[in-house]
Structure formats: structure tokens, C-alpha cells
Amino acid sequence: MDINNYLYLSAILFTIGAVGVVVRRNAIVVFMCIELMLNAANLSLVTFSRINGTLDGQVVAFFTMVVAACEVVVGLAIIVTIYRSRRSASIDDASLLKR
Amino acid sequence: MITFISPTLEYAILAPMLIVLAGALIGVLIEAFAPRSARANSQLFITLTALVLSLASLIRVRNSASTTAAMESVTFDGAGMLLQASILVISIIAVLLLADQENFTALASALPGSDEERASLQKDLRVTEIYPLTLFAVAGMMLFPVATDLITLFVALEVLSLPLYLLAGLSRRRRLMSQEAALKYFLLGAFSSAFFLMGIAYLYGYSASTTLAGIHAAVVGGTGNDIYLLLGIAFLSIGLLFKVGAVPFHAWSPDVYQGAPTAVTAFMAAATKVAAFGAMLRIFYVSFAEALYQWRPALIAIALITMVFGSLVAIAQRDVKRMLAYSSIAHAGFLLSGVIALNKSGLDASIFYLFAYGVATVGAFGIVTLVRDSAGEVTDLNRWSGLGKRSPWVATAFAGFLLAFAGIPLTSGFIGKFSIFSAAYESGSTAILITGVLSSAIAAFFYIRVIVLMFFKDPVEDGTSVVIPSLYTQVTIIVSAVVTFALGIYPTPLINFIQSTASFLR
User: Fold this and answer.
1) Which residue range forms the structural domain that includes residue B201?
2) What is the pLDDT of residue B64?
3) So what's the pLDDT on residue A98?
């Protein structure tokens, strides 16, 4: 199989994630879409690692997983706090800061 | 097969960052073990000590011969040293603002308006986690402009961002707005770091290397697939432009500036800009300099839109924090012209501008924390009218910072703007020069409007007053004001120092 197909798949996943961030309204779903984008980048990194014949890309992928885990910790803390004070995780409801 | 090389770490060179991280870890331990009453003072002491020690070790490191550390993932050169020093100085004066209890919530987990919140306020609790969080952010900021490896860059970006997302949500008053600011900052920040990571993936695919030097070699060699290079530069730039708040990636900044506690806004606005522009300068000067036809036209367009948009929209703002946010967007545009200039004078001018702008920003937000009524800070500009008659000193200092933002002679802003625009002109970007000067003129209009409002309008009697600043806040404001005017009146020593020191090691 052509290894470039993995790159196409990664680009498609990244696009789905990016569109999801823009379109979806629930903070948790938006956050999941961001995670999808990070994992799409991981797939690209691993594929490039295979194409280039160096391990660096796979190392980056490991770091990305750790960073994504940290982001979950911070992100869910913020989203849960918002949910507790508003009883809603919709990002449309969070609109106090408009002129 | 690929052999695994055991890495070497040059602790002496990494010392400034390690000291800050050690301070942050000690802060975490204090949170866990020290009694509540002892926390606030010991945290402030640890934080300031760590920052000052780090600055001292930075001066010592400057004389060491070795310039790369941790397997060439960190490069310590003149520009890196200057940027780290700027971040530390700005952080020290910004941390003093954090010490004011009025800025932060008493208990972050208490629901706004609940009995729990009232009880926590009565018990006089304090969120002392802000100090270790700030130190972690400072360590990330210090790493960001000296990182020469894409992995290190990504980790530094996250280390500086994650604590700031949390800090943005800890305001004492208007807590719903503050939490909303944290949510927006977090979601858009994570969105942009996904782009940053995708850029890393494409640059790695292009050059088969994750180091900036390796990417530079691939660009010079020209053997890679140019589509990957273009995609890589584009995605990486989106991540960086988001952090500096350039149009069209600026949407978060007015909301976050307004919603976050003002002391956090001061720190974030000033220090993040230095770190992000430092990294941007390094990446573009070191890796992409030979591919300038690929990125320069797009970056020039973004710089022009950013300057004009920031200056025009700031005119319509009625809230002082939002006005400063749009002014910071305009300044991001001015600073981008230093990246576009791509020459030595552009680098020197950017470093000077970043330091001068950062210090003035901390001072300006420091003054915003002082204007209050019974419900907290008053950020509505209409209620600032006549401030000069009530509190001449505070109003004069604020006017000074605004004049520095506007780039009026005898302030640091003038020297910064003059040198950055002349560097852009030197590199042949006449459009930048003309648009920059015109949007500076537009920006001067709304800065001077605020000054007129403060000094020539009658005060409104609605309970707005200027509180007596605490000792810490006084130090912040006085230091920022002194630096702002000293750099405007006698900038030669610093300029000479930057010119002789600033360079990127390839």
C-alpha cells in the first residue's frame, strides 16, 4: 500500500477536527475535536518518521501524547468549573464578554 | 539500525530555567504542606527569590563558552540571553502585582454567588497557587525563545500556555466573566497548538529533522518536497501568530484581557509577547531566512491588517482593558515588521521594542488595578473622566504609559517604533513603513482621547475612586514608569548593548 495514504488520512482527520471545533457548540465536543487534530498530527509524524527513516517523528508523537494528557487535565478543570456555575457546557451561552 | 545516544545536559547553561522550575516545585510543596496562614508570604518570597536568582545566573551564564545545551535542543546566544532577561525583568515587576489580594478569588472551586464563596471571603482565604503557576509559565516562556528543536518548542509552548489558561479564570470579582475568559483562552489556545503541531509534522516531513538547523540545511539544499515546507511554515505560523495576537488570530485577546484578573492580564500581555515573538524571530531568522519568498508576502499582509485593524477597532472601545487589548493587537502588527525585516537591525529593534512595550504594559495594567469602586475594578472609560483632578500622580503615570504606547518622543515607545520601522524600511518594505506610521497616528488619537478624558473632563460622582496602592503595586508602577522614561530619554546604553549582543547562533 502507498504510504502516502496515511498522510491523506491524517489530513482528513485534521480537517474533520478543525471543522468540528468551528461548528460544534458543546465545549466537551470542541475539546474532543482538538484532541482529534493532535492525533492526526501524530499520525503524520509517525508516517514521516517511516518515510524519512529516522526515529525523531515517533519521539515527537510520544511528547504529544504527554502534552495532550496535560491539556485534558487543565481543560476539563476549566470546563467543569464553567459547567458548575452555569449548568451548561455550551460555548454559545458563554457570551458575557461581548461588547 | 539507529543507535540511541545517551543525551548530555549542560546544567550551567540551563541553570536560569532550572532555578525557576525549582522555585515552582517548592511552591507546589508549600501548597501541600505549609499551614494556610504562612502560604501567601512564603510563596511570594520563593517566587521573587527564584526569579532574581535566575536573572543573576543568567548574567553568569553569559560568560560561559558553550552555547548549546541538552543535545542542541536549547541554544544560548546573545538574542536568547536578552529575551530571557526581558522575560525575567517583566515577570519580576508583574509578580508584585499578583501580591495584591484584591485581584484573585478566595476559593477557585466555590460557585460564584454561593454560601461557600461568601464563607471563603469572610475567612479571608487566598488562592496561593497563582505563584507556582506563574513560575511554571515563566519557565516555559524562558525556554520558548531559546529552543532550537521543534519538540522543545512545542513542549515550551504548552508549559507557558497551560498555567495561563488556569490563571485567567481566578478573578475575585465578575467571576463568570473570568471563567468564560479561561474557557475561551483554553479552547482557542489548544486549537492553535494543534496547528502548531501539524506544522511541526510537515516540517519534519520536509527536512527529516526536528532541529531548526536541520530545517535550515534542508531549505538551503532544496531537496525536500516544497509543499511540505509551505504547509509547515503556514501551520507553524498560525500557532505563533495566535500567541502574539495577530489578526485574523486575535479573537481571543480582547475577551481574555477583559475577563482575566488584571494582574494576570499584565503578566500575560507583556511576557507572552516577548516569548512568542522571541521564538518567532528565531524560527524565521534561523530556519526560514532562505525561503523568504514563500512566507514574506503573507506575513507582510498579516502585519498590515493587524496594525490597521488593531488601531481602528481600539477607537470604538469603551472599556479600558479592551482598549489596551486592541492596542496590543496593533503593537503585534508593529512587532511583526521586525520579523519581516529579516536583518540585524530588525532583530535589535524587535528586542528593544519587546522590552520597552512589555514594561509599559505591566505599568499600565498595574494602574488599571487601582481604579475601583465598591464592586471591584472600574474599567468603563467614561467613569475614568476627571481622574487627573482626583489623583494626579496615578493619572500622570497612566498618561505616560499611553504616550509610550503611542510612540511620543521622550518615551521608550518612540525609540522602539522608530527603530523597528527604519529596520523594515531598510529591508525594502515601504508599505510597512507607511502603514505603520499611519496606524500609529490613528492609535495616538485614542490614547490622547483617554488623556483628555482624565485631565480635562469633570469627575463623575459615582463612587469611583483610586485606592492607595499597596507597596508592591507602587514598586511595579514606579519601576515601569522610570524604565519607560529612562529608555526614552537616554536609550543609548541599552541600544548599544543590544546591538553588540543580539545575534542568533545558527
Assistant:
1) 11-501
2) 63
3) 66
Residues B293-325 as b/e (b if ≥16 CB within 10 A, e otherwise) read eebbeebbebbbbbbbbbbebbeebebbbbbbb
**CB contact at 8 A, A57 and A45:** yes
pLDDT of residue B26: 96
Q: Tell me the pLDDT tens digit for each residue of B308-335.
A: 999 999 999 989 999 999 999 999 999 9
Q: How far apart are CA B237 and CA B293, in angstroms?
A: 15
Chain B contact set for A63 (CB, 8 A): 151, 154-155
CATH of the domain at A68: 1.10.287.3510
DSSP class of residue B271 equals I
**Residue B79 near residue B500 (C-beta atoms within 8 A):** no
Residue with cell 451548561: A88
CA distances B161 to B38, B136, B271, B309, B464, Å, are: 28, 9, 11, 25, 34
- Chain B: give the shortest CA distance to residue A38, in Å: 5
pLDDT of residue B192: 95
In-domain check, residue A99: no
Q: Quick one: which H or E segment has residue B68? A: strand B68-69
Domains contained in chain A, number: 1
- Mutation target to probe the B interface, by most B beta carbons within 10 A, among A21, A28, A74 is A74
Q: Which residues contact B67 (CB under 8 A, 6 or more apart)?
A: B13, B75, B76, B77, B505
Asked, for residue A92, whether it belongs to a domain, the answer is: no
Distance CA A99, CA A74 (A): 28
Domain ranges, residue A74 = 4-86
With respect to residue A82, please indicate whether it lies within any of the assigned structural domains: yes
How far lies B217's CA from each of A1, B152, B278, B289, B504, in Å? 31, 19, 21, 11, 16
Residue A22 domain-assigned (yes or no):
yes
Within chain B, which residues score under 70 in pLDDT?
1-2, 63-66, 506
Count up the domains in chain B and report the number.
1
The minimum CA-CA distance between A1 and chain B, rounded to whole Å, is 19
Residue B3 forms part of a structural domain = no
Decide if B124 is inside a domain. yes
Q: Do A71 and B190 touch (CB under 8 A)?
A: yes
- Residue A99 confidence (pLDDT) above 70: no
Alpha carbons B238 and B249: distance in angstroms, whole number = 8
Would you state the cell numbers that stand for residue B157, as one nine-digit string? 509552548
Starting at the edge strand found earlier in the chain, the sheet holding B376-377 runs: B376-377, B371-373, B465-466
Of the candidates A17, A51, A81, the beta carbon closest to that of B179 is on A81
In this prediction, residue B71 carries a pLDDT of 80
pLDDT, tens digit (0-9, with 9 covering 90-100), for B472-493: 999 999 999 999 999 999 999 9
CB B28 within 8 A of CB B130: no
The answer to whether B459 and B389 have CB atoms below 8 angstroms apart is yes
Q: How many other CB atoms are found less than 10 A from the CB of residue A28?
A: 14
